[in-house]
Fold this protein.
Amino acid sequence: MEHKAGFVNIVGNPNVGKSTLMNLLMGERISIATFKAQTTRHRIMGIVNTDEAQVVFSDTPGVLNPEGCKLQESMLAFSESALQDADVLLYVTDVIEKPEKNSAFLEKVQKMDVPILVLINKIDLSNQKDLEQLVAEWHERIPRAEIFPISAKVKFNVQNVMQRIMQLLPPSPPYFGKDQWTDKPARFFVNEIIREKILLYYDKEIPYSVEVAVEQFKEKEHSIHIHAVIFCERESQKGILIGHQGVALKKVATEARRTLEKFFGKSIYLELFVKVEKDWRNSVKRLEQFGYMQD
């Protein structure tokens, strides 16, 4: 049987469930998936290997208007780059948003000449009549797309999406080694897991004003020692992140350590520090250091 391989890129607006879907398709917890919008900031690749095929999934940030912020400009560039190299495109929407949302990005999707699967997520929140109407609207919006109503939350119809992806992959040798499951280094997932805990435990603008950088990652046979810094934009944010007598930061560190131990299967020694870096979201130098600027 001829080997098949290809890039399956996942795009859509914020908070429609792209990362949850990616984790289900991967069978690995690879993308941050929380209830907050704008969770994914990078383009994250996850690789599924079988004897006959290699699927290179790519999760992207939610499509949004950059509003003059260099970080958001970079996030939009990650999303638009996913339209350039896809062998199969998964456009994720849900039963809440309207098909006309972000029409400028959708026009670019319509012009693509690769297979497009429109996945209408969260159907557990809808009824049959409304869903049929939504499917009809999406058929009209992107006539050549295949429509899949799904629920990533209850894993409904996700396996059928995976089977269709396998059918659509072009004949090709693998792009990556068969033992590789992501293009990201271990440090990247440390950053993401710590940032996830910040998203979960802090309100308002705090989660969107911080970035995490791993400054030390020393791995031994049974343990990993990690030294990480949380960058924020203002002294007031630093105070909130640390909390009274360091209680808030300790909670983040404890929860992150537990998740990291599950992720790596080793004992984790995690040291967290907070530093102020004013207006880092508009600093080209910092965005390059944090891996947001594409070549």
